[in-house]
Amino acid sequence: MLEHRVDTTEQRATDPALDNQRIFRAILLTMSRPGTVTTLGNLPGHPGGLHPASAAVCMALVDMDSPLWISPDASEDVATHLKFYCGCPVIRKQEECSFGLVLNGLDLPDLERFNPGEAEYPDRSATLIIQVASIEVGHGVRLGGPGINGQTLLNITGLQADFWESMQQNRQRFPLGYDVILTTETEIVSLPRSVQVEI
Amino acid sequence: MTYQEDLMPGKSDATDNDAGYNYGYLNEQTKRMIRRAILKAVAIPGYQVPFAGREMPMPYGWGTGGIQLSACLLGPNDVFKVIDQGADDTTNAVSIRKFFARVTGVETTEKTGEATVIQTRHRIPEAPLQEDQIMVYQVPIPEPLRWVEPRESETRKMHALEEYGVMHVQLYEDIARHGRIATNFMYPVKVDGRYIMCPSPIPKFDNPKLDMSPALHLFGAGREKRIYAVPPYTDVKSLDFEDHPFQVESWDACCGLCGARDSYLDEVILNDEGERMFVCSDTDYCSSRRAQGNFGPMAGREDVAELMGESPQTA
Amino acid sequence: MYVAVKGGEKAIENAHKLMGEERRGDPSVPELGVDQILQQMRLAVDRVMCEGALYDPPLAALAIKQAAGDLVEAIFLLRAYRTTLPRLYASRPVDTTTMHVRRRVSATFKDIPGGQLLGPTFDYTHRLLDFSLAAESQSSIAVATESEPEGPMSRVMDLLGDEGLIEIPTPNDQQHVSDITHDPISFPVKRDARLQSLARGDEGFLLALGYSSQRGFGNNHPFAGEIRMGEVAVSIVPDELGFEVEIGDITVSECEMVTSFKGNKEELPRFTSGYGLSFGYNERKVMAMSIVDRSLQARELGEDVSAPCQDEEFVLYHSDNVEAQGFVQHLKLPHYVDFQADLVMLRSMREEIMKQDTHREKSGEEVA
Fold it and tell me: H or E segment at C200?
């Protein structure tokens, strides 16, 4: 049985190719097993409230082909930093981004406005990276669906309470929808659109 | 101007041979594109995500989809297994395994239980898969509706609208003509009650292994430029009818080498007189059974020694 | 026996060695140099660059040598190399009116501004084997110099366009340009992506499709408005500089076909056109390409899509020879697992039917 907490920090490497690989595998693990938490490690030196884990996810996935939207509460430093390291365009239109970065889970934008894809191409949809305070497994909301053997419990702090209702609505329009990666300073957990949430 | 140091060629020093090629052959930008596609595939089980498949140094049709997936997955902590027709030592499996040993330095294995990533063509191993394993399938034609509708623009609509009636009509025509469903491999499945999916050309014998599997299954079609996935613990149902339920093939014979009766068997013609025997298609399963002291009726024969991996031929 | 493919590692090594021997041929014959291929097999180099989608003549020549002259294999080698290269910039569109023209013909006008220029061509050679070429050490051939035109040379199509007789697309720098090596094509396909696919499409396939349209499968009456070949400058605009910098010259072939006209009560009649462009000197290719490009405009022009050459899914999904040769040839890989699945079922079906037949025969006897 796989642990519900997986630490990948020991595997840190200096080669960007290997770092990208390690972070991607951690994200893949959480996306294919909603409710499983992975520790990415504490990469230092990120400005203005950008969690190291969020920065790591961006480095591994975001580039010039995937426009990034950043919540308006973020300082200009965050945008400059990510533009520089990811080479991605940072855009203002929430509807057009491939990735949406929300710095404060207690101050969510209207999630409905993120691109849910099209009926024929539901993959052309946004992935949200939402920063939260803490992630705990074993209690909290009940998750089910693909990737989960039976059910799993997840408790998030630093996240707006109505987020879970949004996830339920997101599931209603499957296969359309956005996919979410929640990040603390060092950990991530993912909630693909296929996840079923019982509050 | 941006920094993006991983954009530069030959930046990676993770492998000491083949300087000039990046770790895992593909450049980081291509890998990110494929990785984004993989994540969407996982989030929408059974849906085929288009991706800008790249030319690989192997021909299209020879596993380039699977190879691109593996190139984006593999890292220093992986143990990699490659099988073709269930066997680790078929030429194309050897060739792919060598390629990754060369461009990533990844540890390779023939043992199903030891592998973290298993790339396969046409089979799912017999040994039950585990939670920390990823299966990578090489897919020639990812579209399960292709045989009823050759046009991509049409099949895409059919998936969008969940218009799957034609698929059942086709299977039913089989029943009318042959008294049974005559599809024996690439047998279509429905994933999590939504998308009809091609499980790649595995024999239908392997279909049940996909249902609620603890492992993650990723499918890559390089030439057709599609990636799709079955996450762990996902409902995968082979299409059938109430009066013609899904059935897998069975053999009267057992494996001639290890005596297994529960594995998928290949037929081997031994001589011009037409003498034949059946052997496990999964070579690791077969040799593990023999190592545990299980032997089949043909195990002692000299003319099958080669099949038992005892005298690999050299030309 | 077939399972002998097992234990393949040594077998693979041996196959590589044998292929090396085959490639080298009789060692008493001097080895072919890459520079010789580059200089004396230039049209093969050009085709490999074009369909390999990489402008690098020495590497294309190397690929031809490595592939022992199998051009489709050489194209594949070049593509597989190309895919590992980082993309640093997108070049500015090349302007073929500034081409240093080495060949230029128009079939639609007797004379055109800038003139017709025959240049190097097989066109009027009598296809008689030249046995003098079989003799080695040919002395250099003196060339009667044709005066090469200087300065920009307008395209015949632009001249027709000025008169409104043909629609010339207006350049639009703001519009996103597709990149088929970057984004998978999806249908319906825009013309930029279509042209890119055709540019690296298999010459033989496009030739056959173009030919089929001339024979009436999607007829569109092509006239060779203009064919030109020569060198054009390639330039980029680096972010950090903000102005255009020339990075080199490449040889290209260009063909514009003038085709059947359209028009109605609301719209003045005018010609339609098809376009072909390739790396190097690939005249047959760009001519075929321009006919197929025109055929594929059927949907936009409101024509019936009835012939294979008008069907974009059919044409674009099957024009790439790297894809096609791989999939056709993958049939030589083992498929015994799938074959076994069919074999098991076929045997059991036959058994069942035979049982029924004998049963029927028996019961028939009893009745009699």
Answer: none
Q: Give the model confidence (pLDDT) of A11-54 as tens digits.
A: 555 688 999 999 999 999 999 999 999 998 756 668 889 999 99
**Beta strands per DSSP E along A5-106:** 5-7, 37-39, 68-70, 90-91, 99-102
- Taking an 8 Å cut-off on Cβ atoms, the answer to whether B85 and C344 are in contact is no
Q: In the Cβ-directed half-sphere of C158, how many Cα atoms lie within 13 Å?
A: 11
> What residues form DSSP beta bridges with B299?
none
**The two structure tokens encoding residue B1:** 């101007």
Q: Which amino acid, one-letter code, is at B116?
A: T
- Give which of B189, B142, B194, B192 is closest to B163, Cα–Cα: B194
Taking the CA of residue B77 and the nearest CA in chain A, the distance in Å comes to 8
Q: Which residues of A are less than 8 Å from B219 in CB distance?
A: none
Q: Which pair of tokens denotes residue C176?
A: 């996103």
CB contact under 8 A, B178 and C349: yes
Which tokens in the block code for residue B36?
A: 């984004």
C181 touches chain B (CB under 8 A): yes
Residues A152 and A137 sit within 8 Å (Cβ to Cβ): yes
Cα A107 to Cα A101: distance, rounded to the nearest angstrom: 12
State the CB neighbour count (10 A cutoff) for residue C23.
15
Contact yes or no for C86 and B21 at CB 8 A = no
Residues 6+ apart with CB under 8 A from B169: B148
Closest to C152 in 3D by CA, of C104, C228, C95, C227: C95
Contacts of A182 (CB under 8 A, 6+ apart): A105, A130, A131, A132, A135, A156, A159, A188, A189, A190, A191
Q: How far is residue C78's CA from residue C56's CA, in Å, rounded to a whole number? A: 9
Supply φ then ψ for residue A137, to 5 degrees.
Answer: -105, 160
Q: Which residue of B has its CA nearest to C317?
A: B224
Which of B32, B38, B195, B197 to mutate to test binding with chain A, by most A CBs within 10 Å of its CB? B32
Give the tens place of pLDDT for each residue, B200-253.
999 999 999 999 999 999 999 999 999 999 999 999 999 999 888 998 988 889
Nearest CA to C332 among B59, B56, B143, B183? Answer: B59
- One-letter amino acid for residue B292 of the chain: Q
Residue B110: its pLDDT value, please?
Answer: 94
| Contact at CB, A27 and B22, closer than 8 angstroms | no
Q: What are phi and psi of A94, to 5 degrees?
A: -60, -35
Residue A68 to residue A127: CA distance in whole angstroms: 10
Q: How far apart are the C-alpha atoms of A91 and C300, rounded to whole Å?
A: 33
Segment A79-99 mean pLDDT: 95
CB A61 within 8 A of CB A31: no
> What token pair was written down for A65?
């082909």
Name the 3-class secondary structure at B277.
Answer: strand
Task: Phi first, then psi: give them for residue B230, nearest 5 degrees.
Answer: -120, 110
Task: Write out pLDDT tens, residues B58-88.
Answer: 899 899 999 999 999 999 999 999 999 999 9
For the stretch C305-347, pLDDT in tens is 999 999 999 999 999 999 999 999 999 998 999 998 898 888 8
Angle (CA) A170-A173-A179 rounded to 5° is 40
Which of C337, C342, C351, C355 is most worth mutating to test chain B (most B CB atoms within 10 A of its CB)? C337
pLDDT tens-digit profile of C19-31?
999 999 999 999 9
Are A33 and B231 in contact (CB < 8 Å)?
yes
Per-residue pLDDT at C269: 86
Tens of pLDDT, residues B254-273: 999 999 999 999 999 888 88
Which residues of chain B have a CB within 8 Å of the CB of C88?
Answer: 7
Phi then psi for residue B9, to 5 deg, are -70, 150
Which of B 143-202 lie inside 8 A of C, CB atoms? 151-153, 178-180, 182, 184-186, 201-202
Average of pLDDT values for A99-127? Answer: 97
